[in-house]
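Lab notes, practical 5.
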Amino acid sequence: MIISHSLLSSVPSGDRDYVKYEFVHDDAGGRVDIIEKLVPQGFDTTADRISMIPALEQAAADEEIGDAISRAEAGQNPDLVPPLFQDQNDYDRRVLGRCMQFADVQAFYASLPMWQAMEGRGGSNANQRAAYLEIPRVPYYDEMSARYGDVQGIAFFLDSDAVWEDLPAEFD
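Output from the prediction step:
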């Protein structure tokens, strides 16, 4: 959530003003977005700043989703970093939904801990979890549950001792 926005500068440039806005987010990292642009002289910069807030907040939330998906694609749990720019249930729904698009079994398997964490956060049964994710139980939640159940079943094979720690010289 953006907690403050201000006009940093306004410099005339012919019949326009060059304006520089600052938006400070309410997060642990102290994210600051700076927007610079030319506007007509006499332009309502206060209304302009306020109108930008929803798009900046959505962009920050989308960036979190992109980072989580990148972690999963790299074989890491996408749920390692808590969301700062959206509610946990929105984050869970958005990330897990995108993980359902993975054809790569290893990337999908990397998202299993997030699914399991969502199950703990979402309630004790499928109806409660579907409500937590704000999705219909049939077909979406049931399809997700079935696919994550399948990946749990193959986890033994994915985590097997057949994974090489060192590459044999024959493969160099």
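Observations recorded by the TA: The chain has a mean pLDDT of 86. The chain has two domains: 8-60, 65-158.
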